[in-house]
Design goal:
By secondary structure, the protein is α+β, with helices and mostly antiparallel strands. 16% of the residues lie in helices and 31% in strands. The chain has one helix and twelve strands. The chain has a six-stranded antiparallel beta sheet, with no helix packed on it. Strands 4-3-5-6-9-12 form a six-stranded mixed beta sheet, with no helix packed on it. The longest helix is centred in the C-terminal third of the chain and has 26 residues.
Length: 166
């Protein structure tokens, strides 16, 4: 049975078995394949059979799917092929019979089909990433207003008390 073996940056290892023709993969509990690591998105991608090959499709994950450090959108999984989900290293183990398995097989590079990583991005137009464009205020104005309001409330309380005792 085909499976994906994984190792987190902390050294935790595990594997997920590919038991259906199409399965979602991610950190959330509602996925068919769960890799519980913070760098893996809740719904990171999908593993499916296309023709005679297993294919992994990234579903717009935050930390991406990478091969040799390059971000990819879709990749064909080959026996021994390595790829990275977020910061989790993965190896695909094919679903062929053990007697057909070669005695030694060097890991092969998994094939990509372009996608997100091949598109150039003008980082000056990105929003939501990097340093803030507007510096954050110190909050002194709101604190001074609150202090003034508290002082006025105390003055009113003293005035009211003086009126009652007179």
């Amino acid at each position: 049975m085909a499976k994906i073996q994984f190792t987190t940056p902390e050294g935790t290892t595990g594997e997920v078995e590919l038991t259906a023709e199409r399965m979602s993969l991610g950190r959330a509990d509602d996925n068919a394949l769960i890799i519980a690591h913070d760098s893996v998105s809740s719904h990171h991608g999908e593993v499916s059979i296309e023709g005679n090959a297993w294919v992994f499709t990234d579903l717009g994950s935050t930390n991406g799917t990478k091969i040799d450090g390059e971000r990819v959108e879709k990749l064909e999984l080959a026996h021994g092929g390595t790829f990275t989900l977020g910061h989790v290293e993965c190896v695909f183990v094919g679903d062929y019979e053990e007697e057909q398995a070669p005695a030694y097989s060097a890991p092969t590079r998994t094939q990509t089909t372009g996608g997100y990583g091949s598109t150039s991005v003008d980082s000056s137009r990105r929003t939501g990433f990097g340093p803030k464009t507007k510096p954050k205020g110190s909050g002194a104005g709101a604190l001074m207003g609150l202090g003034f309001l508290a002082l006025a409330a105390c003055a009113y309380a003293v005035f009211s008390f003086m009126q009652m005792s007179a």
